[in-house]
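Interim report to the steering committee. The following record documents the input for Cytochrome P450 (327 residues).
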Amino acid sequence: MEVSMLMIMGVISTVLVSILFVFQILFWATPKDMEGIPGRLGWPVIGESFSFISEFSSPSGIFTFMNKRQQKYGKVFKSFVLGRFTVFMTGREASKILLSGKDGMVSLNLFYTGQQVLGPTSLLQTTGDAHKRLRRLIAEPLSIDGLKKYFNFINSLTISTLDNWHGRTVLVLEEASTFTLQVIGHMIMSLEPSGEEQEKFRANFKLISSSFASLPFKIPGTAFHRGIKEEHLEIKAKRESGTSLTWAEVNNMPYTAKSPLRPYSFLGFGNGPRMCPGINLAKIEISIFIHHLVCTYKWRGLDEDDSVQPTLVRMPRNKYPIIVEAL
């Protein structure tokens, strides 16, 4: 149960800070482009759309759709879904081709709603020099040095958020979402953590984010008990009595913030020229929150329902209710 709750915290932070965009391992094509590629196009007009939608709504999402066809046709296969001829590519090699190629070789293709919400000049829609210029503008504020000035705010907000958890049922999904948006709202618009403006910001963000998706932030369950919890309790034990978490401690959390990964094996933040610019912010938020969480409480889930919402971002349907107990 403890692992599930931490995974949800990681998912929410990653999803929101990544701005929830769709960059899946597929690309749009024409029938002529797909000559010689294995697969099937399904029924006229509708193709394999019904199968795609049906399996998308299952707990495993489109993984089931893709896995069945990968087993039959290999790592590259064609289909016709949602009105488009599509080539699906799976595996690390495909990710490297799509994400590290020369800018313009592969273009980001948001769903129609995402295109309408963001417009043609947003970071996710631009390419070439325009895209590079926008990334340069936001690079410094989201760098490690740029984020250092927000450390005290994130640390204090984490402590006050967790203080309110004691003695009540906590819906982890709601709490994680609220916390992450409070941080982002303060950073980009100097919003206070509560109040009418913060509520408007959250409401508008939910409308916009309904057009996008992100991959989960992966925290291996067994490794958590051997690594993360031990690491954070050790940090707390070394700290002087009465003092709080410091920037130096967060920046030197090797297990939490700097876990080594094979290139292109984890795409929660993308990779290459279009890697999510909010990667450092997400890591800092998660590191601070998990530190105070595992040093303050133990918890248990209140509902064994493990069903998920049939949305692009797979989230627990019950919002994962827990009850906490002080250590």
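The CA atoms of residues 142 and 277 lie 7 Å apart. The committee is asked to note this result when reviewing the revised timeline.
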